[in-house]
Amino acid sequence: MANTPYIVTRGVVLRQTETKEADKILTLLTAEQGRISVIARGARRKGCRYAACAQPLVYSEWTLYQKGDWYYANEGATLELFGGLRSDLTAMSLGFYLAELTECVAAPEQDASELLRHLLNGLYALSALHKPPELVKAAFELKLLALAGYEPLAERCGSCGRTEVEQPVLDVVQGVVRCGSCGARERGTSLPLDGGSLAALRHILYSDPRRLYSFRLEEASMKRLGNAAEAFTAAQLDRGFRTLDFYKSLL
Questions:
Q1: Each residue of 23-55: pLDDT tens digit?
Q2: How far is CA 32 from CA 35, 50, 68, 136, 140, in A?
Q3: Of 83, 44, 79, 86, which Cα lies nearest the Cα of 62?
Q4: Which is deepest, 32, 76, 147, 247, by most CB within 10 Å?
Q5: What is the dihedral of CA 186, 190, 192, 197, to 10 degrees?
Q6: What are the beta bridge partners of residue 192?
Protein backbone atom coordinates (compact mmCIF):
# COMPACT_ATOMS: atom_id res chain seq x y z
CA MET A 1 0.00 0.00 0.00
CA ALA A 2 2.99 2.33 0.39
CA ASN A 3 3.08 3.18 -3.31
CA THR A 4 -0.69 3.28 -3.80
CA PRO A 5 -1.90 6.71 -4.98
CA TYR A 6 -4.72 8.02 -2.85
CA ILE A 7 -7.66 10.11 -3.99
CA VAL A 8 -9.33 12.59 -1.64
CA THR A 9 -12.87 13.42 -2.72
CA ARG A 10 -16.21 14.50 -1.33
CA GLY A 11 -19.45 12.72 -2.09
CA VAL A 12 -22.91 11.52 -1.09
CA VAL A 13 -23.70 7.84 -0.61
CA LEU A 14 -26.55 7.14 -3.03
CA ARG A 15 -26.94 3.47 -2.20
CA GLN A 16 -25.35 0.70 -0.17
CA THR A 17 -25.13 -3.05 -0.70
CA GLU A 18 -24.06 -5.33 2.12
CA THR A 19 -21.52 -7.95 1.14
CA LYS A 20 -19.40 -10.60 2.85
CA GLU A 21 -19.42 -10.54 6.65
CA ALA A 22 -18.97 -6.86 7.43
CA ASP A 23 -18.28 -5.04 4.15
CA LYS A 24 -20.39 -2.69 2.07
CA ILE A 25 -20.34 -1.66 -1.56
CA LEU A 26 -21.23 2.02 -1.73
CA THR A 27 -22.50 3.89 -4.76
CA LEU A 28 -20.98 7.30 -4.27
CA LEU A 29 -21.66 10.54 -6.19
CA THR A 30 -18.61 12.79 -6.30
CA ALA A 31 -17.96 16.03 -8.14
CA GLU A 32 -14.78 14.97 -9.94
CA GLN A 33 -15.21 11.22 -10.47
CA GLY A 34 -18.98 11.24 -10.94
CA ARG A 35 -20.73 8.03 -9.91
CA ILE A 36 -18.31 5.47 -8.53
CA SER A 37 -18.47 2.16 -6.65
CA VAL A 38 -16.52 2.01 -3.41
CA ILE A 39 -15.75 -1.08 -1.35
CA ALA A 40 -15.87 -0.12 2.33
CA ARG A 41 -14.25 -2.99 4.17
CA GLY A 42 -15.51 -3.58 7.69
CA ALA A 43 -18.07 -0.76 7.43
CA ARG A 44 -20.67 -2.80 9.27
CA ARG A 45 -18.44 -3.30 12.30
CA LYS A 46 -19.03 -1.03 15.29
CA GLY A 47 -15.39 -0.05 15.51
CA CYS A 48 -15.01 0.92 11.86
CA ARG A 49 -13.53 4.41 11.63
CA TYR A 50 -15.72 5.38 8.68
CA ALA A 51 -18.95 3.56 9.62
CA ALA A 52 -20.89 6.83 9.92
CA CYS A 53 -19.79 7.89 6.42
CA ALA A 54 -20.91 4.62 4.87
CA GLN A 55 -24.63 5.29 5.25
CA PRO A 56 -27.04 6.38 2.50
CA LEU A 57 -27.65 10.12 2.22
CA VAL A 58 -24.50 11.09 4.13
CA TYR A 59 -22.11 13.65 2.65
CA SER A 60 -18.49 12.91 3.55
CA GLU A 61 -14.89 13.48 2.60
CA TRP A 62 -13.26 10.20 1.57
CA THR A 63 -9.72 9.04 1.07
CA LEU A 64 -9.83 6.27 -1.53
CA TYR A 65 -7.42 4.13 -3.49
CA GLN A 66 -8.13 2.38 -6.76
CA LYS A 67 -7.44 -1.20 -7.79
CA GLY A 68 -8.70 -2.14 -11.23
CA ASP A 69 -12.28 -0.93 -11.72
CA TRP A 70 -12.93 -0.57 -7.99
CA TYR A 71 -12.29 2.11 -5.44
CA TYR A 72 -11.57 1.12 -1.83
CA ALA A 73 -12.20 3.26 1.23
CA ASN A 74 -9.20 4.09 3.37
CA GLU A 75 -10.54 6.95 5.52
CA GLY A 76 -13.72 9.00 5.79
CA ALA A 77 -14.96 12.06 7.66
CA THR A 78 -18.61 13.09 7.74
CA LEU A 79 -19.47 16.58 6.52
CA GLU A 80 -23.28 16.46 6.72
CA LEU A 81 -25.53 13.75 8.12
CA PHE A 82 -28.81 15.49 7.19
CA GLY A 83 -30.20 14.68 10.61
CA GLY A 84 -33.61 16.17 9.79
CA LEU A 85 -34.21 13.33 7.35
CA ARG A 86 -33.48 10.65 9.92
CA SER A 87 -36.20 11.86 12.26
CA ASP A 88 -38.91 11.97 9.57
CA LEU A 89 -39.73 8.79 7.65
CA THR A 90 -41.54 10.64 4.85
CA ALA A 91 -38.65 13.05 4.33
CA MET A 92 -36.12 10.23 4.43
CA SER A 93 -38.05 8.13 1.92
CA LEU A 94 -38.18 11.13 -0.41
CA GLY A 95 -34.45 11.60 0.12
CA PHE A 96 -33.88 8.02 -1.02
CA TYR A 97 -35.92 8.76 -4.15
CA LEU A 98 -33.83 11.86 -4.89
CA ALA A 99 -30.73 9.71 -4.55
CA GLU A 100 -32.04 6.93 -6.81
CA LEU A 101 -33.13 9.46 -9.40
CA THR A 102 -29.72 11.11 -9.33
CA GLU A 103 -27.98 7.76 -9.68
CA CYS A 104 -30.07 7.08 -12.78
CA VAL A 105 -28.75 10.15 -14.63
CA ALA A 106 -25.21 10.35 -13.22
CA ALA A 107 -22.53 8.89 -15.46
CA PRO A 108 -19.53 7.00 -14.07
CA GLU A 109 -16.14 8.71 -14.17
CA GLN A 110 -17.53 12.03 -15.46
CA ASP A 111 -17.76 15.45 -13.85
CA ALA A 112 -20.89 15.59 -11.72
CA SER A 113 -20.37 18.82 -9.82
CA GLU A 114 -23.75 20.26 -10.81
CA LEU A 115 -25.59 17.04 -10.00
CA LEU A 116 -23.89 16.79 -6.62
CA ARG A 117 -24.72 20.40 -5.80
CA HIS A 118 -28.32 19.83 -6.84
CA LEU A 119 -28.63 16.72 -4.67
CA LEU A 120 -27.10 18.43 -1.66
CA ASN A 121 -29.48 21.38 -2.04
CA GLY A 122 -32.47 19.05 -2.27
CA LEU A 123 -31.50 17.09 0.83
CA TYR A 124 -30.83 20.33 2.70
CA ALA A 125 -34.23 21.72 1.69
CA LEU A 126 -35.90 18.66 3.21
CA SER A 127 -33.66 18.25 6.25
CA ALA A 128 -32.92 21.78 7.45
CA LEU A 129 -35.36 24.10 5.67
CA HIS A 130 -38.31 21.70 6.09
CA LYS A 131 -39.72 22.66 2.71
CA PRO A 132 -42.94 20.83 1.74
CA PRO A 133 -41.98 17.42 0.35
CA GLU A 134 -44.29 17.77 -2.66
CA LEU A 135 -42.62 21.08 -3.59
CA VAL A 136 -39.10 19.68 -3.21
CA LYS A 137 -39.99 16.56 -5.20
CA ALA A 138 -41.39 18.43 -8.20
CA ALA A 139 -38.65 21.06 -8.30
CA PHE A 140 -35.92 18.47 -7.87
CA GLU A 141 -37.27 16.23 -10.64
CA LEU A 142 -37.63 19.02 -13.18
CA LYS A 143 -34.28 20.66 -12.47
CA LEU A 144 -32.46 17.33 -12.41
CA LEU A 145 -33.89 16.39 -15.79
CA ALA A 146 -32.81 19.78 -17.12
CA LEU A 147 -29.26 19.25 -15.81
CA ALA A 148 -29.22 15.81 -17.43
CA GLY A 149 -30.12 17.23 -20.85
CA TYR A 150 -33.89 16.73 -20.86
CA GLU A 151 -34.93 20.33 -20.17
CA PRO A 152 -38.52 20.97 -21.28
CA LEU A 153 -39.26 24.04 -23.41
CA ALA A 154 -41.43 26.26 -21.24
CA GLU A 155 -40.74 29.87 -22.25
CA ARG A 156 -43.48 29.89 -24.90
CA CYS A 157 -46.00 27.63 -26.57
CA GLY A 158 -44.13 25.01 -28.58
CA SER A 159 -46.71 25.25 -31.36
CA CYS A 160 -47.90 28.86 -31.77
CA GLY A 161 -44.95 30.56 -30.06
CA ARG A 162 -46.96 32.74 -27.66
CA THR A 163 -45.34 33.53 -24.32
CA GLU A 164 -48.81 34.03 -22.79
CA VAL A 165 -49.77 30.37 -22.97
CA GLU A 166 -53.53 29.82 -22.72
CA GLN A 167 -54.76 26.82 -20.73
CA PRO A 168 -51.18 25.46 -20.63
CA VAL A 169 -50.32 21.79 -20.85
CA LEU A 170 -46.97 20.00 -20.64
CA ASP A 171 -46.37 17.36 -23.28
CA VAL A 172 -44.31 14.94 -21.20
CA VAL A 173 -43.06 12.95 -24.21
CA GLN A 174 -42.08 15.85 -26.49
CA GLY A 175 -40.97 17.99 -23.53
CA VAL A 176 -42.76 21.20 -24.53
CA VAL A 177 -45.40 23.46 -23.07
CA ARG A 178 -48.33 24.23 -25.34
CA CYS A 179 -51.58 26.12 -25.25
CA GLY A 180 -54.49 23.80 -24.52
CA SER A 181 -55.88 24.23 -28.02
CA CYS A 182 -52.48 23.79 -29.67
CA GLY A 183 -51.85 20.60 -27.72
CA ALA A 184 -55.22 19.04 -28.51
CA ARG A 185 -53.67 16.45 -30.83
CA GLU A 186 -51.22 15.35 -28.12
CA ARG A 187 -53.81 15.24 -25.37
CA GLY A 188 -52.87 11.66 -24.49
CA THR A 189 -49.31 12.66 -23.56
CA SER A 190 -50.07 16.10 -22.09
CA LEU A 191 -50.79 17.01 -18.48
CA PRO A 192 -52.67 20.19 -17.57
CA LEU A 193 -50.98 23.12 -15.88
CA ASP A 194 -52.39 26.48 -14.82
CA GLY A 195 -50.99 29.97 -14.38
CA GLY A 196 -49.37 29.21 -11.02
CA SER A 197 -47.83 25.88 -11.97
CA LEU A 198 -46.51 27.26 -15.28
CA ALA A 199 -44.87 30.18 -13.45
CA ALA A 200 -43.35 27.69 -10.99
CA LEU A 201 -42.09 25.52 -13.85
CA ARG A 202 -40.37 28.53 -15.42
CA HIS A 203 -38.90 29.52 -12.06
CA ILE A 204 -37.47 26.00 -11.59
CA LEU A 205 -35.92 25.90 -15.04
CA TYR A 206 -34.65 29.45 -15.50
CA SER A 207 -34.02 31.11 -12.12
CA ASP A 208 -30.91 31.08 -9.94
CA PRO A 209 -30.44 27.48 -8.66
CA ARG A 210 -29.88 28.88 -5.17
CA ARG A 211 -33.52 30.02 -5.18
CA LEU A 212 -34.88 26.76 -6.58
CA TYR A 213 -37.21 26.05 -3.66
CA SER A 214 -38.21 29.65 -2.91
CA PHE A 215 -41.73 29.59 -4.30
CA ARG A 216 -45.19 28.76 -3.03
CA LEU A 217 -48.24 27.40 -4.78
CA GLU A 218 -51.90 26.93 -4.03
CA GLU A 219 -52.78 23.30 -3.39
CA ALA A 220 -54.42 22.77 -6.80
CA SER A 221 -51.48 24.32 -8.68
CA MET A 222 -49.00 22.31 -6.62
CA LYS A 223 -50.83 19.11 -7.48
CA ARG A 224 -50.74 19.92 -11.19
CA LEU A 225 -47.04 20.76 -11.07
CA GLY A 226 -46.29 17.56 -9.13
CA ASN A 227 -48.26 15.34 -11.51
CA ALA A 228 -46.61 16.92 -14.55
CA ALA A 229 -43.10 16.66 -13.07
CA GLU A 230 -43.50 13.00 -12.14
CA ALA A 231 -45.02 12.06 -15.50
CA PHE A 232 -42.31 13.99 -17.37
CA THR A 233 -39.58 12.20 -15.38
CA ALA A 234 -41.10 8.77 -16.03
CA ALA A 235 -41.58 9.48 -19.75
CA GLN A 236 -38.09 10.84 -20.33
CA LEU A 237 -36.21 8.20 -18.33
CA ASP A 238 -38.58 5.39 -19.36
CA ARG A 239 -38.49 3.57 -16.03
CA GLY A 240 -40.02 3.43 -12.58
CA PHE A 241 -38.38 3.85 -9.18
CA ARG A 242 -38.99 1.56 -6.21
CA THR A 243 -38.07 4.36 -3.79
CA LEU A 244 -40.81 6.51 -5.33
CA ASP A 245 -43.31 3.71 -4.84
CA PHE A 246 -42.33 3.47 -1.17
CA TYR A 247 -42.54 7.25 -0.68
CA LYS A 248 -46.02 7.31 -2.21
CA SER A 249 -47.15 4.39 -0.05
CA LEU A 250 -46.44 6.54 3.02
CA LEU A 251 -48.76 9.26 1.75
A1: 999 999 999 999 999 999 988 988 899 999 999
A2: 9, 21, 18, 26, 22
A3: 79
A4: 76
A5: -130
A6: 169
